[in-house]
Amino acid sequence: MGVPEGRSCDYVIAVVGQPSVGKSTFFAHVTGELVRVANWPGTTVEQKIGIVTFEDKTLCLVDLPGIYGLSPTSPEERITKNFLVSGDWDVVLVLADSLILERSIYLP
């Protein structure tokens, strides 16, 4: 998965959703990590890992590229699909655009 050397995670949280729903903004806010954020798809092209301590637990948040479905059409979507299929996570946090909620949470 790529957890930083010498660190262990009590929980691995995969942050997923369609492009441009705010995954990286959420990730940066929660972890304090500097990540590139933009208002167009394709800004995140690889997974990024941030470590957070909450109530004596170490949480590893994994910021993943945007994905429209589980049949990837780009190398970035393939990164996300492969991570999800690997099962190397404890929680999947799906971020969605509340204005198009039905489309945002649909992963065919």
What would you call the shape? globular
Portion in helices: 10-25%
According to CATH, the homologous superfamily is P-loop containing nucleotide triphosphate hydrolases
Which runs of at least 5 residues are low in confidence (pLDDT < 50)? Answer: none
- CATH 2nd-level architecture: 3-Layer(aba) Sandwich
Q: How large a portion of the residues is in β-strands, by DSSP E?
A: 15-25%
Radius of gyration: 13 Å
Order of helices and strands: EHEEHEH
What's the average pLDDT? Answer: 84
Spatial strand arrangement across the major sheet? 2-3-1-4
Question: What's the CATH first level?
Answer: Alpha Beta
Supply the number of structural domains: 1
Derived from helix and strand composition plus strand pairing, the structural class reads alpha/beta
Number of helices: 3
Please give the largest β-sheet.
Answer: 4 strands, mixed
Compute the number of strand runs.
4
Short description:
The protein is an alpha/beta fold and 108 residues long. 23% of the residues lie in helices and 22% in strands.
Description:
The chain is of the alpha/beta class. The chain has a single domain (about 10-95), classed as Rossmann fold (3-Layer(aba) Sandwich), CATH 3.40.50. The chain has 3 helices and 4 strands. The chain has helices spanning about 25-30, 75-85, 100-105, and strands at about 10-15, 50-55, 55-65, 90-95. A 4-stranded mixed β-sheet has the order 2-3-1-4, with helices on both faces. Strand 2 and strand 3 (about 55-65) form a beta hairpin. The model has no long low-confidence stretch (mean pLDDT about 85).
